[in-house]
Structures are given as C-alpha cells and as structure tokens.
Design brief:
The complex is a heterodimer of chains A (516) and B (482). With 516 residues, chain A is α/β, with parallel strands linked by helices. Chain A has 15 helices and 17 strands. In chain B, helix 2 packs antiparallel against helix 7, helix 5 packs antiparallel against helix 6 and helix 7 runs antiparallel to helix 8. Classes of the chains: A alpha/beta (516), B mainly alpha (482).
Chain lengths: 516, 482
C-alpha cells in the first residue's frame, strides 16, 4: 500500500496503482517522488545511522548497524563518526567577528604608517586589487595610520593595540595569524566562504561538517550550537543568516542550533500550563510513530532528522535551563568575565555560555559578534567594539585554561576579511574609515592542536599584501579540522557527483607552522 | 736594571746639544699626540667616509711590515756581536720600523674610525699599537747610547718589551679578524690538554644541560648573526667552544659570574637599549630562558652537567608519545551493550583501535558512581581517558582507576573526591593529565601528585589546594601547564 504524500483523503484508501487508469499515468504517479527523496534513499544508510545514534544514544550502535546494512563490515571503524586520527582538540569554540575587524588597528602593528599619514598608498602596493563599490570611485587612497598606540606584551613581545588590553595579557597563549586571506570582497560571499568554504549558499558549514564527521559527545545538547550577540545600534551591523550554520546537503540534524540572544534561549522550550513532562513525552511518542510510518513509506532521510530533532528538543527542555542557569557560577567567574556577562545576549554572556557548553560536551560552539564593518568613524566605533569583545575573549581563554579545558578545546577568533589601510571617505587626524580588504587579515587561535605563543605570517608595511606565509581560508579550515582529528580530504559527502568537502575542490593544505 | 744604570740613563736624558734637544722635543710632542689621539679623534662607532675606509683597509696589509722589521731587529742586534755590519744595519731597520709603525698605526686608526668599529677588542688592539709605537720611539732614542758602548742595558730591555707588546698586540689584531680561537681551533687534543685549553673547553656532553637547554636557546635566538654564516663581533654561539671563547670584545661567559657575563648582560638590557641582544628588533629571550642561562653560568657553565640545582624544566621529563593500546575490536559488541545498560559509553578516540577508548559519562553523570565505574574495569587496558567530571564517584574510585593501565587523562572536576588515596594513581605510567578543579582536594592531598613522573597537566582550580597566585593555577611552576 503506497499512498502519495499529497493525498489527504483518508477515507478512500485505494491505491492509485489499482485504479483503472492508463499504465503510463501509473508510472508517472509512481515516479512522483521528489528528487531529494530519490537521492535521499541512496543516502538512507547515513540517515539511519544518524537517527539511531541519537535515539539509542550510542553512536556505536547506530553506526555499527549502518555498517551492517551496507555490508561493509571489514573494519568496525570505517563508518563511525570518529576522528580519523587521535585529535588534539575534542571540541572547538569559534568567535566570529562579523563585518571584518581592522587588522592594523588591533594586532598587525605598522609603525611606519604614522609617517605616511594622508599620503596615497602606492599603486605598486595596491596592484590590481578589485575594490568595493564603496571606495572604487574615490579619487585618492590616503593612508590612515592607526589612531592607537601599540605596546609589546608577554614573553613573546607581541605588539598589541591599546584597544585590546585584555587580549594583550594572553598573547603568549595565542597563535596569531597575520596572513589569513580570502577571495571575496563583500560580506555575504566572504562570510559564506569563511564558514562553508564556498561563496555560494548551500554548502554545509564547518560546524555541520564537524557534527557529521565526529558526532555528538553528549545526548542532551546539540552537537553544534550557535550564539548570536545582541547588536549594538552604534555599530554598523551586517546581517548574519542561518545559511551560515546550515548543514547544506548534509542531513539537517547537523545544522547549528541557535540560542536566542534575548528572552527564552529557545522558544517554546517551556511546556505550556497544564502540559507536564509526561504528557509531552506521550505526544512526542505519537508524533514519532507517525514519522516512522512516513519514513517507512517515503524513505526520506529528512524525516529521520525531524524525529531526531523532536527528541533533541525534548531533552533540551531539561538541559538548556540547566545550561543557562548561571546562579551557581562562583564569584571568580564574574570577576573574570565582567558585569556584562550577567546580561543575556552580550558577547561576554555568550562566551560564558560557550565555556559551559564546552564542559557539557557540545562539540562546536560558534558565537557571532556583528558590528565590525567600520566604513566610517573608526575612532568612534572601534573602542566600543573592542570594549565589548576584548575582555570576554580573554575571560573565555583564561577560564578554559584554569579549568583545564584549553588543552583539548580549540578556540578560533576570526572575521570574514580585513580592512584597508587607506581611508574610506574623509581622513583627519581624529577620524577615518576603512573599507573591506581581502588580501590579508589577522585572526587568532589557541588551545588544543595549535602552536601557542607564535605569530604566523608577515604582511607588508601597509598591511595590504602578504610578504610571507599566506593562509588561505581553505588552509585555515583544513588546519581547524586537523586539530579535531580530521583529514579535510577524507571528510567527504557525495553530492552532485562530487566528493564534497569543506575545503572544496581547489587544493587546500594544513598549515604545519600553526599546528602543535 | 740597577740604580747605577738608572742614574746614568737619567743623566743622558738631559739634552746636551741642540740636535738632541730638538729630537727629544719632537719625540715628546709625538708621544703626547699619540696618547691623546683616541681622545681627540673619538671612535664613535659610526661609519665615516668611504675613502677613509678604503685606506684603512690597507692596515692589515701594511701592519706586517713593522712586525717583520721588529722581529728582525733583535736578530740583527744579537748577530751583530760577531758581524758589526749587521749592527749598523740594525739602526736603519729600527728607524724604518718606527716609520712603518707610525704608518700602520695611522691606517689602523683610520680603519677603526671609518668603519665604525668599537669595542673592547678594538681598543685593546689600538692601545697596543700606540704603546708599541712609543716603545719603538724610545728604542730609537735609547739606542745611540747603547751602541756607543755606554754599557746600559736599557735598550735591550726596551727591545724585549717591544717584542712582548708586539706579540700581544698582534694577537689582539688577529682575534679581531679571525676570531679568538683561530689558532687553537685545530690544535691537537693532547696539546690542548697540555696547554690547558682542553680543560677550558671540553666537548659538551650529549644530554647535558648545555646541550638540551642552552644551545637550543642560542640556536633559536643568536646563531643567525653569531654562527657559521655571520660572525658578528667575532663571536660564535653555535658551539660550546665558540660560546666560551667569546668574541673580539673578550669572553661573553664568565663561569660563576652571571652578572659579569656579557652574554647575559646584553640579553637582559631594556629592549630599546643600543646594546640589547638579540639585535635588529628580534624578540627578547623568554624569562625562563634567561633564568636557565643565569643558573647555568652561576653553576659553572659546565658542558657536561646534566641537571642544575633549582632548575626543573618540564621538557626534562619529555611527554611520551601515547603508548598504543591493544585492539579492542573484538569487544565492540560488549562495549555497546555496556553503553545501553549504563548510559555511560566507551567512545573510540579515533578510527585507530590502538588510540584507545574514552569513558564518556556526560549523559548520566549524576548517576555514575564507583559501582558503575567498577563495571568498566574489564575494559581497563583500553581506556586512555576517563571523563568522570561531575559524576558521583568518590575517593574509592582511585583504586579502580589504578587498574586502568593506559590511562592518560583523568577528569574528576566537580566530583566529591577529596584526594584521599590519590597516590594509588602513581601506578599509572602514562597518566599525563588530571583535573581536580572544583573538588575538595587539599594541598596535602594534592602533594601526592608530586611524585608522579608522567604527570604534566594538573588542574586544581577552585579547590583548597589552588595555589595562591591567581595566574598560576597548577600544582607547581615546573610540572604543569595551567
């Protein structure tokens, strides 16, 4: 008995194929299966693996089962969601600085620029770099030296801007990459590239690949969580969308689960009055039965994802309130993160949550902080941004470190591109703007898997071009995967005739100089 | 020289004719001029005109002329006893060598001035040259009296002085150009021992503190300029011998005297100081590296000592590569059944069975106690990491855990353990990481960890055993990475 999903007539259970209609029509009806379902059927094994792993709560059972179904029993490990080699980091926290932080005002110290104030950047430096529509029409490209002084910090003697007094305290623990570079010059393609390895939407993001490749460490919280920081109206906030934490062509259960930045962290997480946990359980059991029926009929792996998500939501009803209950945090926590951390939705609060998630086995947490798009009024806005971000970053790293979690947690701080050394719009001694700059920007990592206390790569005197050791977005992502025990070339998924991977078809390499 | 001689000499010093008076006046003026030269024309360390350098560079060439003549001089004087013609020639040679000395001195001074060379080695060589020239001048003045048979031994004594000063000055000059160990570098070992060089610079022993910690620091920070390629200041820091021989400014290490050792002094100057090392904006040495160098010099700058008192470096007990565990594939079914029954699960570290299993309790932490832990004893040899944080395990777990022979990391944060019996974990040869944060572990209990050699990462945050200083949250400075 096969019923078309669009057929809502429950009284007449007659199968279309039994009707006295031409055979051609019957064939057409039978073929009325979505392309996704068709493709999905071939990927059913994976779907099953995922569902059973979540439902049974044991990755091993589900995946071993999957291996049984495919008959690939040669090694019990081949199909497991496991690192390919012993990882240095079990989990990662990604602090995403959306908008593009200005590297030469923060960590890429260029002392010689002061003397070049208001001089045009030499054409030989600018080369043929495509500019955005925002500055392409400018008659001049006057050099805007950083408004802030830099000092050397730590045993490494690393130069850090006065804007980042807290980051300065932990430079000896950071792996600063001055030569991250991208191909995109506008936000959406750049941020997609950074997160999914491709400028076009539709590809799974880093977190989804990690979930898909490594599976969950705990049953009660999502593997991949996304925290958005409340926007500050004083800042120039570019939108971030769920495309950035999408699972793309991977099953939806690998997508990032967002916590809201205000109010209830998850909507409708609390049961309505009169519905207790038992009633909720019964309801979900019934829904699951129906979903299983659909699954048996249609074989769409997305149904599995849905079953899994219902179950996850049920468990999150208990786990999220515990996660977000900060009342038991010791006073030392507040001393470290500062008073902002008590206010949900701030970057400081999100950093604290990220630490709590790390403790509770969340594989990948990504915090988005918007507002870095400083096209104008750098001296007005940048101090606000740094004040919001600097201390929490330090607090998170320090907190992980003192709790013994930094050894196996990778922390990444990055935006989608850097900013130009020349001023966008008017330049004065007091103020300037900076446009997008793809050729070099500064990011940092710390924690398990990376060489701490180094600065990697060199940029030219204008922080415009790379002089030594470039790190492409592909290399950057390949290195992150490496820290987590994944060979980026081996974590693949067949889609559209390709072995798709995070780093894409263009060759990518891990960066040995960054890795411990 | 006896008193009578001196009196006779003094008598002759009084000019007795117009000619000698002029001669003495000129000599006196010249001497004063030479002595004042370094103060009038100061070697300021800055490069000067190219033509000056061009001329100055003929100094090493010209300088050999007076050397040859001055060495010839005593030969002529001695041989002249039997062959008077030679003694006559000696006077001419003496005058010629004086002229050559003046020339070489002028060129040498020009070289130092124009190339901006300064430093103790340069000034020693310079003063040597000046003193030598003055001695030769005195010889010129003293010789007539001696040759006229007035019996004074002043001239021969002076000539001996000249030879000694010449040798010393030449050696200084040679050290400037070739490095101070140029002559002795390939000296046969027995000869070195005989002379004392062998005792001075024995070969550093493999595995010595020097080889493990001093040499690598110098290698990373100094050898770019003080190595085989570049030998700035005549100093090579790529070998123990080079380090101990010093450069053109003399030794850089004075065993037992760290504060007088130029190397340590230079690296501890403020980074913006002109003499600060490493130069050219390279990052300063790390404080612990400076500490090692200081302690090493203080304790004799030995090439063989393996350990230094009071210096314990974690790398001295190197982190062992993970020991592969046995293949647990055969137990997979059982492992899975355990997981279903327990809620806690054994998760492979990676797809390589030899990487072992992680005991993961996060989903059932509150209900996972010592009894549950005991059920995993069967898989003990395969478990490399036990995540028991926030579980209900107690001090009784230490006895069970001590059978987890491949255990490398142990999480006990937020549990009820008090540390009683922690020493049982001492039987775990690979235990590298232990996290006791948020437990009631006391200082006394934590002290038991001190004897565990493999332990590298100890976390005691938020416990009674937490060290005082907020920055260092681990057990001790030397054994952990907090």
């Amino acid at each position: 008995m096969k019923q078309h999903p669009l057929c809502t007539d429950t009284e007449h259970q007659a199968n279309v194929l039994d009707l006295p209609i031409p055979a051609g029509l019957k064939q057409a009806w039978a073929a009325l299966e979505t392309r996704r379902q068709f493709l999905g059927r071939s990927g059913k094994v994976l779907g099953w693996a995922a569902a059973s792993s979540l439902l049974a709560g044991r990755g091993l059972i589900g995946d071993a089962h999957a291996a049984d179904m495919t008959g690939k029993q040669s090694s019990p490990f081949v199909d497991l969601k496991l690192p390919q080699f012993a990882p240095k980091a079990k989990r990662a926290i990604y602090l995403f600085m959306s908008g593009g932080p200005p590297q030469m005002d923060l960590l890429d110290y260029k002392p010689n620029l002061a003397a070049l104030y208001n001089q045009d950047i030499p054409d030989s430096v600018r080369g043929s770099q495509q500019l955005t529509g925002m500055t392409a029409g400018q008659a001049r490209f006057p050099i805007a030296p950083s408004h802030w002084a830099f000092q050397r910090y730590g045993q490494t003697g690393t130069w850090v801007s006065d804007l980042l007094p807290y980051t300065a305290r932990m430079v000896d623990d950071l792996t600063i990459i001055k030569t991250t570079n991208t191909e995109a010059i506008n936000h959406e393609p750049a941020i997609m590239l950074m997160n999914t390895g491709n400028m076009n939407a539709g590809k799974p993001c880093l977190g989804a690949w990690l979930s898909y490749g490594l599976g969950s460490m705990n049953d009660n919280l999502p593997t991949f969580m996304v925290l958005q920081t409340k926007t500050n109206p004083k800042e120039n906030n570019q939108p971030v969308s769920s495309r950035l934490w999408s699972s793309g062509f991977l099953s939806s259960e690998y997508a990032g689960v967002g916590l809201r930045s205000g109010g209830d962290p998850v909507l409708y997480l609390t049961d309505p009055d009169g519905v207790d946990r038992e009633v909720r359980r019964k309801m979900l059991d019934a829904v699951e039965q129906m979903n299983r029926q659909t699954l048996a009929e249609m074989g769409d792996p997305e149904t599995n994802a849905r079953i899994a998500q219902y179950e996850m939501a049920f468990r999150m009803q208990a786990s999220v309130p515990e996660l977000t209950d900060l009342s038991k945090e010791p006073p030392s926590t507040w001393d470290l993160y500062g008073p902002d951390a008590k206010e949900p939705g701030t970057f400081a609060y999100n950093c604290l949550l990220a630490r709590r998630m790390a403790e509770r086995g969340v594989r990948f947490t990504q915090i988005y902080k918007r507002g870095w798009d400083v096209h104008a009024d750098v001296t007005g806005v940048l101090p606000i941004l740094c004040q919001e971000v600097d201390r929490p970053c330090y607090a998170l790293v320090t907190d992980l470190k003192r709790r013994g979690l930094l050894d196996d947690t990778l922390v990444v701080w990055a935006g989608e591109f850097g900013r130009t050394v020349y001023s966008q719009g008017g330049l004065s001694k007091e103020n300037y703007g900076r446009d997008h700059h793809p050729r070099c920007y500064t990011t940092w990592m710390t924690g398990g898997g990376v060489r701490r206390g180094i600065t990697y790569g060199e940029t030219d005197d204008y922080s415009y071009n790379i002089v030594k050791d470039p790190v492409t977005v592909r290399d950057f992502n390949a290195s992150i995967l490496h820290c987590l025990g994944i060979d980026h070339n081996k974590l693949t998924y067949k889609f559209q005739g390709l072995d798709q991977k995070l780093t894409g078809p263009v060759p990518a390499n891990i960066v040995p100089g960054l890795l411990a | 020289m006896n008193v009578k001689d001196l009196a006779a000499f003094a008598g002759r010093l009084v000019p007795d004719s117009r000619r000698t008076r002029v001669l003495w006046s000129v000599s006196l003026a010249l001497s004063i001029g030479l002595l004042l030269l370094p103060f009038l024309l100061v070697l300021d360390g800055k490069p000067h005109a190219d033509w000056q350098q061009f001329l100055g560079r003929f100094h090493p060439l010209v300088v050999h002329l007076p050397i040859g003549l001055l060495v010839l001089l005593p030969v002529l004087e001695v041989m002249g006893r039997s062959r008077p013609a030679l003694r006559e020639a000696a006077e001419f040679v003496l005058l010629l060598s004086f002229a050559c000395c003046l020339g070489a001195l002028a060129l040498g001074y020009l070289l130092a001035f124009a190339s901006g060379d300064t430093g103790a080695g340069v000034s020693r060589h310079m003063w040597g040259g000046i003193v030598l020239t003055l001695c030769v001048l005195l010889c010129v003045l003293a010789r007539p009296a001696w040759s006229s048979g007035q019996g004074t031994r002043f001239y021969p004594a002076l000539l001996t002085c000249v030879l000694l000063v010449l040798t010393w000055t030449a050696d200084q000059g040679g050290s400037l150009t070739h490095g101070s160990n140029y002559l002795t570098e390939y000296m046969p070992a027995p000869l070195k021992v005989l002379i004392g060089f062998g005792l001075l610079h024995p070969k550093p022993a493999a595995g010595s503190f020097y080889a493990r910690h001093i040499n690598p620091v110098l290698d990373a920070n100094c050898v770019a300029c003080h190595g085989e390629g570049k030998v700035k200041g005549g100093l090579r820091l790529d070998s123990y011998e080079g380090l101990m021989s010093g450069g053109k400014d003399g030794p850089v290490i004075l065993a037992g005297q760290p504060d007088k050792s130029a190397l340590l002094v230079r690296v501890t100057l403020p980074p913006d100081h002109k003499q600060f090392m490493p130069a050219e904006g390279r990052p300063p040495l790390r404080p612990e590296e400076i500490g090692w160098i200081r302690a090493w010099i203080q304790q004799g700058a030995s090439p063989t000592a393996r350990q230094l008192a009071g210096v314990l470096i974690p790398e001295d007990t190197p982190e062992l590569p993970p020991h592969p565990v046995g293949d647990y594939s055969a137990f997979m079914d059982e492992i899975q059944r355990m997981a279903v029954g327990q809620g806690a699960k054994l998760v492979p570290v990676s797809r390589q069975p030899s990487d072992g299993l992680i005991l993961n309790t996060v989903d059932v932490a509150a209900n996972f106690g010592d009894a549950q832990l005991a059920q995993f004893s069967k898989f003990a040899p395969y478990i490399v990491e036990a995540e028991l944080d926030r579980t209900a395990v107690t001090d009784a777990s230490f006895a069970i855990l001590s059978t987890f022979t491949h255990l490398r990391a142990l999480h006990l944060e937020g549990t009820a353990v008090s540390g009683n019996g922690l020493q049982k974990l001492g039987s775990l040869p690979e235990l590298n990481y232990i996290n006791l944060s948020g437990t009631r572990v006391t200082k006394a209990a934590a002290a038991q960890l001190g004897t565990m050699k493999s332990l590298r990462h100890v976390y005691l945050y938020n416990t009674p055993a937490q060290p005082e200083s907020a920055g260092n949250l681990a057990l001790s400075n030397t054994r952990s990475t907090p």
